[in-house]
Amino acid sequence: MSTPAEKAMAAGVSVDLVMLDGCVQAAFLADKLKTVKYLPIRDDDILLCTYPKSGTHWTWEILNMIVAGKAEYAKHWQNSAWLEYRTEEELEELASPRILHTHLLPSQLPDAVWDKRCKVVYVRRNAKDCLVSAYSQYSKQIWKDNPLGIRSYTGTWEAFVDLFLDGCLIGVPYFKHTIEWINISEAHKGFEICGLQYEDMKKDCVQEIRRMADYLGRPLSDTTYQAISDACSFKKLKHANEKIKDQTYHFHWQDGSSGYFRKGTTGDWKNWFTVAQSERFDKVYEERLKETFPY
């Protein structure tokens, strides 16, 4: 019987994949992932935790501005603070308070995150939009360390939907990731995280910025909240990441595309899913999360 990693490669994922802790991972990242649990954590570290394509860049920039107390872009890409990708030495170079981001499960993070009661911000997004965004990136993306210049995914949209629902895409499967994070209070009694919804951020970004600032104990003026919201609009943030920021940690993408910034909208899944695909997705979603798909 094929492993999820083998199924993914057979369906068109062109990256060499392996199984690690029951999840599909890129082979070149496997050794690094084994060390994440033991990375040094500082008392004032802030962790941004998301499933891929859930507004990570957006929220990370907002958090940096809250900490800075002004609407000023961080120097580097968010990849400079990617917990499971950067080396220990690179992470140590970051000034405190560090705003680290990760796509890992709570159980995969260093125990010190919970022991030190670090601030944790978790963002959840409509799963169908996550899927569409991931497909669009994978099908255009060329990994930084790929010498052949091959797109990360060369298969069909239909096969990609199957890989997502079957937990065969790179990283922690969506349903496993969501279940662990929404049940975090059961695993760590009394630990308070700041839970956000991508769609709420799109409706009223200022209000969600205020919630994050209050959680971090860094309240700001209403004028500053509005300035941060404006600076982190999709168009302005895309421009900043591609034209203003230091590109040291920027990956290389096919056709010069950033790969990360596509539309930044909600509900685009309706332009991709067939009725049959949507119904199947809803059924799996309800079975796994014990809730009706809300969108």
Characterise this structure.
The chain is α/β, with parallel strands linked by helices and 295 residues long. It has a single domain, classed as P-loop containing nucleotide triphosphate hydrolases (Rossmann fold). Helices cover 42% and strands 9% of the residues. The chain is built from 14 helices and 6 strands. The strands form 2 sheets. It has a 4-stranded parallel β-sheet with strand order 4-3-5-6. A two-stranded antiparallel sheet has the order 1-2. A hairpin with a 2-residue loop joins strand 1 and strand 2. It starts with a helix and ends in a 6-residue tail after the last helix.
Sequence-ordered SSE layout with sheet pairings:
Blueprint: H1 4-11, E1 17-20, E2 23-26, H2 30-33, E3 46-50, H3 56-68, H4 88-92, E4 99-102, H5 111-115, E5 119-124, H6 127-138, H7 157-165, H8 174-182, H9 184-187, E6 194-197, H10 198-203, H11 205-216, H12 222-231, H13 234-244, H14 275-289
Parallel strand pairs: 3-4, 3-5, 5-6
Antiparallel strand pairs: 1-2
Helix pairs in contact: 3-11, 11-12
